[in-house]
Write a structure and sequence with these properties.
The chain is of the alpha+beta class. It has 3 helices and 7 strands, in the order H-E-E-H-E-E-E-E-H-E.
Length: 156
Amino acid sequence: MRLDKTTFVGLLAKIILLSFLFSETAHSQLIFAARHVIGRINQMSQEDSNNNTASQFATVIIDAPANKVYATAVNVASQNTAVTIVSQDSRNMKMNVTEGGNKASISVVPLGNASSEIMISATVTAQNPNLGTSAAVNSIMKICNQLNKVCKPGAN
């Protein structure tokens, strides 16, 4: 069976049209999923042998450029007199801070031109076992508020 040029071009056009339709559907599904993820703070904690919170991790995806998010995180840490910035890596958008005996690491990861992920890892002392959980989430909330973004804890 041999295809003439007109049949081949018609078949090729149909294949291209179908691929555009399927890619548009997939793109729409990604946008739908992203809208449900943006601003939702996910967190988890690890306990020590005495069942006290020893470390805590929180993350959120927001629709803001990573460099702006990182600058805001540095600004939030700088404005808090109880927080000391121990190290700062603007190129890789990472920062380490302390507050009392507690330590935290903050990292901002670009996910595209207009979206990024904030990750905060906090280690807490036995004197303040609940501080880490609230500190990581509260830090993300402060960054989101300064960026005028809506962020709220997820269901985890």
